[in-house]
User: What shape does this take?
Amino acid sequence: MKILVAVKRVVDYNVKVRAKADGSAVDLANVKMAINPFCEIAVEEAVRLKEKGIASEVVVVSLGPQAAQEQIRTALALGADRGILVQAEGDLEPLAIAKCLKKICDDEQPGMVLLGKQAIDGDNNQTGQMLAALTGFAQATFASVITVEEGSAKVTREIDGGLQTLSIKLPAIVTADLRLNEPRYASLPNIMKAKKKQLDTVTPADLGVDPAARTKLLKVEPPAERKAGIKVADVAQLVDKLKNEAKVI
Amino acid sequence: MKQFAEQFKAIVGDKNVITSKAEMAPYGIDRTTLWQPNPSLVVRPDSIEQVQQIVLLANQHNIPLVPSGGRTGLSGGAVAKDGEVVVTLERMKRILHYSAPDQTVTCEAGVITQHLQQFAEQQGLFYPVDFASSGSSHIGGNVATNAGGIRVLRYGGTREQVLGLKVVTGNGDILDLNRGLVKNNCGPDLRHLFIGSEGILGFICEVTVRLQPPPPPQSVMVVSARAITDLLEVFQCSRKTVTLSAFEFIAQQAMDAVTAHTGQHSPFKNTSTTPAPCYGLLEFDTPNKANTITDFFAQCQQQGWIDDAVISQSERQSKELWQLRENVSESLSPHKPLKHDVAVRMEKLPEFIARMEVKLAEEFPQLQSVWFGHLGDGNIHLNVLKPEGWSEQRFGELATEVSGLVYRLVWEMGGSISAEHGVGLLKQRILGRQVAGTEVKHWLAARNSFDAHSVMNRGKVI
Ligand SMILES: Cc1cc2nc3c(=O)[nH]c(=O)nc-3n(C[C@H](O)[C@H](O)[C@H](O)COP(=O)(O)OP(=O)(O)OC[C@H]3O[C@@H](n4cnc5c(N)ncnc54)[C@H](O)[C@@H]3O)c2cc1C
Ligand SMILES: Cc1cc2nc3c(=O)[nH]c(=O)nc-3n(C[C@H](O)[C@H](O)[C@H](O)COP(=O)(O)OP(=O)(O)OC[C@H]3O[C@@H](n4cnc5c(N)ncnc54)[C@H](O)[C@@H]3O)c2cc1C
Assistant: This one.
């Protein structure tokens, strides 16, 4: 079975982002970029399925600028076999991404498509679901356990207040949640090997997709500063303030 | 000393003199646990003038004082075991002045190191001195101990950041040292005498430090090598290839202790099968060209210096890899280790480790030693573990002999018996009697000059 994994280039999770002074966008100058953490988990899962002999080939796809090659190379260093960059500048919306992935699914015929449950930049949580609708594949989102069986997969999903286990037919779309696995480190010998792996570049136009945005970003602003705390003299004053000022009790 | 409580109250106000045993409990100690704290009073001044009056009072009545910062010290410098009066600068925590043209900040000595780091960040700048206790330590304590930490290789220790100090000497003089200037060649620079003086010359009350531009994104790489000599080759090679921020060293036993203690996986779980005798951790500016690192790795591998390496792909992975190094100390603590914080010049490091291991094996074959540290600074933490089944007392009886052996070789090879944790009470004897030679005479003269009645940290350091 071939597994297709989608990875997105985003600002590193641990970087404190700043809005540009004019509020037009997030300032990306001199900022560390990385694979979206949920996508990294998806890659790890695909590689593990390959190591178990379940997957025969792992193909990673990234949609983004030329520099997104770095994230594809990382995924190749982690153990993926081949990469495809769909090169497009500017912000891509989930629907455009899902349409490109749909076309790649048509060409590649994967048995499973693994994606992160959401990208930490836009927080949209839409691409996997849209792709499922476009391909007509089964879908299981927020996966924390994946067990592949003959022609189907059992997927445990993280839902509010508990877990839900589904059995889905393959081919299927599965989106990875945080607890699915703990991604490995990229080793230098594998980074070197990854350089020789095949990486093809196409454009949305090649795939017959118009990537133009359907929404317009009006403004980006930082969250309101937290007000400084105050010191209360005693418990009585605390209770009084909680009751009468904060009105929480 | 309790009889002086009223006079101290007259200086700092009633509620800033602590007299009850319960309230004094957190004071008069640091992170060592070898001595029973026993301060007679704790005094909390709010200004340099109050500090001066405290010192003058102490001189008048021969009251021994112990300066107290964040009490995270590891050598007993802030311990008050003999009924001294503890003077804590915890109320003196104001940031006094930020100068954008000078890229400096002036603050009171009680500012917590982490707050200074955060203040720098708010200005779009960076205060580079950092270590595991920076959430509690004070900038005054950092100056008093010349604290080092994880970025000394790149930025130097606390000494390299300090452009000015306001101090109250043990005689009660207020000195304004170097006044925040970059250039000042007016006589010997007393600022540097106070940096690292561990409270024996006077109180550090205000500090001016330089700030740095924030470093670009960093990568962390862990390499596995067969020998420390190989790691030193990697160090030299890496210095020419990337802009290093840190180069740390973790011996196999230390790595095993961390993975066993914390449950964290070895970074080579998925790649190597055989464990390596030692690991190096490198942090550096993420290079612009992807090939820089692979070429560097290929070169090191061809030379046979390293077998394998991993590199962080995200800040999260960088942090995890750092934890392998930062958790060593804690992971060894169940073995009640005898710790040595020593330094030798880099060129002597392999010989030092080899000779030390032979000597230890000859004289104490029953003891296991574990090596790790800031390799890029020539600073090694040698921990000798208490053998399984031994009582602490039985192990303790060997301590003087074992440490004596370590320190003699360190000194013989031109090294330091306390690379970053200072002398305090812990190494006072060894420093004075065994190793420091004629320098001691001049230290005593300096001490006498600044603190004629020896009210400051009596019985510490020298
Ligand atoms: C987990 C951990 C990790 C650490 N890692 C490092 C490390 O990597 N590098 C390193 O260098 N250290 C390290 N330390 C040691 C310690 O944190 C540093 O020595 C720190 O600088 C001490 O600051 P402090 O404010 O806690 O000083 P304290 O412990 O309160 O005092 C230290 C000494 O300075 C004197 N002193 C304090 N304030 C003043 C003042 N205002 N004027 C005059 N004298 C004063 C005290 O009398 C005492 O002798 C570590 C400690 C811990 C617990
Ligand atoms: C054209 C010109 C340009 C200059 N530009 C600069 C400049 O940009 N920056 C700058 O800082 N200076 C500058 N100087 C000043 C001078 O060159 C420096 O101060 C230099 O360091 C002096 O070195 P020297 O060997 O000539 O010392 P000397 O003039 O011989 O001695 C200087 C002092 O040091 C003492 N001394 C000398 N050797 C020793 C020793 N081994 N041990 C103990 N004490 C010793 C002497 O007794 C004397 O007090 C300049 C001078 C000239 C003429």
Observations:
- Residues 392-412 of chain B form the longest helix (21 residues).
- The domain at 218-329 of chain B is CATH 3.30.70.2190 (Alpha-Beta Plaits).
- The first strand of chain B starts at residue 17 and ends at 18.
